[in-house]
């Protein structure tokens, strides 16, 4: 403990000019000291208010739009009866469930096999395969739909592969959503399979269990919760996405697309709110079941666990290599088709190279302004979001306060995971566009888009920050408090440098997600704040498919380049700030 006290004291005074009063001198007695020590308590109420404005009140506005009519009278029963009585409603739900369950049945086994190859085999070039598998994260969800049109559409290379109807319909939506959701499921399952106790596998071998029996009795039970979490994630992403169905759905409408049409095309806001409320149900249900399973799941790695290292197995490794090669070939085919179509005059009849499709100012959709707006939005979201998310996690994980307040904040930080982007965007329309709302001036502004994106992607960043903060010993804060160091000073001087890798991961995640998002912001932009991913949708609506592919390609390349630049720029910084992690020689 004494050593920790001196370390905090040394860190807290780093960088002060000679003769300056030490930061440790701000005790509880002075006004500035009392203000500094009371800052975390005030910040918790500020974060609680931010959650209310950014998440809770928009959802309440969504419910109010669905439950009450313009005069304030209860109308939910009549509206729900009218919606159910519509002959297209139950088939709409059936089609949405059919697509979602088919994508889950296709994606989760493929992602599990891919994750198994990366974590439980000796397949060569694992970083390469993993990098290719994660590429769809850097593209808007409309890119695979556009690529499928070029491959299997009416003028596609393989236009007869799906019969007379072509790719438009059920299988077009399934394939597009499979491409879109595969990396999300893969990340969950890679994390799941990375935790394994080698002693279980040694015991299975000692008892003469075959590889299949070991897989069936050891690997699958240990990955059960991860498999369910991946299935829930894929189900929620598919059932709430309207981008892919809009491009390749044809005469196969689904629930999310109906909500989009009700608001944008038909101006039926009460119908859009009611469908949005229905879209919230599967997300909340799967989120609740997943949380319940996590509480029941036993820890996979105990204090005496040994790291599992797969042994040589020629048959297994060859099979795993074939799996990753086939999946990566499919993903690269889709990406290459979209990129190639953006660079030729007329796919597939005139393959002469051209950059005419990148002349966005002469196309419908917003031009180069949309691309510049996306860069601005992504940078602002990453900066503001990384600060807000890390400080929010620090307030609940590293400071003292009422248990009920910390519980409310933690629940609020996890709530965005259960709210689909389309539903959140609808809530923002009804809340911020209300004439009596003093925040009405934000509607259509870049600030509101930043707020919506931070709220939409908050949970993933919070879980990353909270995991990093929980690894720190509480002696740091205890020593700082005993010396009279304000908690914010300890956070800035000690906690932030130690957790810098997690903060940079959050920054990178927010930047890329903001470049590619469509559903959360589709209702919130103005002509001055149109975004690149939305311009893809607008250009496709106008029949400019090749320019839409070009903008999708530009978003993909920008996201990949930004991730690489952030990684390279932070490498030297991390080497200096994380030198304490390296063992002494």
Spell out the key features of this protein:
about 575 residues, mainly alpha, MetI-like fold, 2 domains, two-stranded antiparallel ribbon, about 70% helix
Principal-axis shape equals globular
CATH class of the largest domain: Mainly Alpha
Characterize the main sheet. Answer: 2 strands, antiparallel
**Number of H/I helices:** 24
- Percentage of residues in DSSP E strands: under 5%
Average pLDDT number: 84
- Order of SSEs, N→C? HHHHHHHHHHHHHHEEHHHHHHHHHH
- Just name the CATH architecture of the largest domain: Orthogonal Bundle
CATH superfamily of the largest domain: MetI-like
What is the assembly state of the chains in this entry? Answer: single chain
Radius of gyration: 26 Å
Q: Could you give the order of strands across the largest sheet?
A: 1-2
The total tally of domains equals 2
Query: How helical, in percent, are the residues?
Result: 55-70%
Under CATH, the topology of the largest domain can be stated as MetI-like fold
Number of strands: 2
Briefly note the structural class of the backbone.
Answer: mainly alpha
Distance between the termini: 25 Å
């Amino acid at each position: 403990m004494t050593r920790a006290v001196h370390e905090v004291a040394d860190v807290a005074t780093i960088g002060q000019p000679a003769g300056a009063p030490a930061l440790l001198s701000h005790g509880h007695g002075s006004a500035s000291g009392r203000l500094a020590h009371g800052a975390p308590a005030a910040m918790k109420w500020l974060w609680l208010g931010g959650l209310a404005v950014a998440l809770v009140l928009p959802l309440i506005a969504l419910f109010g739009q669905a439950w009450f009519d313009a005069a304030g009278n209860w109308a939910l029963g009549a509206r729900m009866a009218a919606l159910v009585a519509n002959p297209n409603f139950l088939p709409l739900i059936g089609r949405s469930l059919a697509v979602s369950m088919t994508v889950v049945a296709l994606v989760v086994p493929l992602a599990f096999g891919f994750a198994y190859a990366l974590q439980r085999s000796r397949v060569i070039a694992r970083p390469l395969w993993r990098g290719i598998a994660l590429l769809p994260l850097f593209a808007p969800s409309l890119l695979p739909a556009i690529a499928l049109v070029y491959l299997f559409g009416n003028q596609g290379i393989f236009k007869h592969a799906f019969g007379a109807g072509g790719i438009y319909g059920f299988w077009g939506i399934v394939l597009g959503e499979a491409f879109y959701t595969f990396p999300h499921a893969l990340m969950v399952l890679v994390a799941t399979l990375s935790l394994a106790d080698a002693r279980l596998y040694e015991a299975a071998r000692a008892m003469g269990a075959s590889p299949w029996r070991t897989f069936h009795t050891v690997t699958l039970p240990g990955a059960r919760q991860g498999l369910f979490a991946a299935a829930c994630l894929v189900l929620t992403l598919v059932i709430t996405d309207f981008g892919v169905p809009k491009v390749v759905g044809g005469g196969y409408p689904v629930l999310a697309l109906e909500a989009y049409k009700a608001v944008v095309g038909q101006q039926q806001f009460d119908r859009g709110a009611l469908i949005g409320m229905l879209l919230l149900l599967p997300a909340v249900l799967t989120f609740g079941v997943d949380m319940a399973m996590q509480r029941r799941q036993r820890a996979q790695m105990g204090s005496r666990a040994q790291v599992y290292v797969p042994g040589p197995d020629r048959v297994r490794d060859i099979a795993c290599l074939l799996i990753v090669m086939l999946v990566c070939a499919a993903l690269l085919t889709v990406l290459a088709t979209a990129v190639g179509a953006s660079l030729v005059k007329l796919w597939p009849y005139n393959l002469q190279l051209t950059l005419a499709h990148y002349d966005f100012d002469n196309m419908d959709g917003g031009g180069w302004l949309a691309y510049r707006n996306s860069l601005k939005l992504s940078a602002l979201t990453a900066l503001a979001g990384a600060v807000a998310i890390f400080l929010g996690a620090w307030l609940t994980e590293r400071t003292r306060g009422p248990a009920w307040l910390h519980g409310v904040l933690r629940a609020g930080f996890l709530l965005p995971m259960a709210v689909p982007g389309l539903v959140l965007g609808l809530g923002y329309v009804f809340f911020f566009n209300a004439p009596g709302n003093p925040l009405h001036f934000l509607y259509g502004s870049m600030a509101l888009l930043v707020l919506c994106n931070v709220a939409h992607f908050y949970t993933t960043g919070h879980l990353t920050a909270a995991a990093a903060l929980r690894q720190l010993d509480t002696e740091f804060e205890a020593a700082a408090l005993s010396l009279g160091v304000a908690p914010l000073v300890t956070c800035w001087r000690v906690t932030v440098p130690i957790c810098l890798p997690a903060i940079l991961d959050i920054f990178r995640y927010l930047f890329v997600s903001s470049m590619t998002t469509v559903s959360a912001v589709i209702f919130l932009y103005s002509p001055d704040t149109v975004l690149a991913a939305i311009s893809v949708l607008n250009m496709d609506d106008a029949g400019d498919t090749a320019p839409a592919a070009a903008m999708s390609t530009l978003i993909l390349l920008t996201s990949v380049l930004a991730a690489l630049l952030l990684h390279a720029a932070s490498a030297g910084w991390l080497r200096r700030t994380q030198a304490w992690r390296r063992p002494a020689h």
